[in-house]
Amino acid sequence: GSTFFIKNGQNIEGMLCINYDGSKFEKLSNDLLKLANLTAQDTKTSAQDAIEQLSENIEEIIEDILKRHDLNASDTKPKNRAKCIKKLYENGIFNVKGSIPKVAKYLNISEPSVYRYLQKNQND
Known about the structure:
Layout: E1 2-8, E2 11-18, H1 23-35, H2 40-68, H3 78-90, H4 99-107, H5 111-123
Antiparallel strand pairs: 1-2
């Protein structure tokens, strides 16, 4: 399911929650895999491998983005961290699941701090 906030400026007016049952799609997917002589387990393993590979590469991507913009991750000034988060956001790093903890670890800040910097960037 998904939850979306309904805002009026900075005020939250309500929430829209959408839930769905994906079991029919899962059954259809498994049936198609059987036709191709594959099993869901084979697919899950390769998907898990891809996710693990991407997770390992996130830190390299973070480092590359910051280097391209001459930003120093070890600079602990809030202004520098805000610039780092902004550049990472602009480069789409936060579209990758699991990137928030990686960015927090790389910048040596907490995960809530990453969310606060992101919120501040979106408000600016």
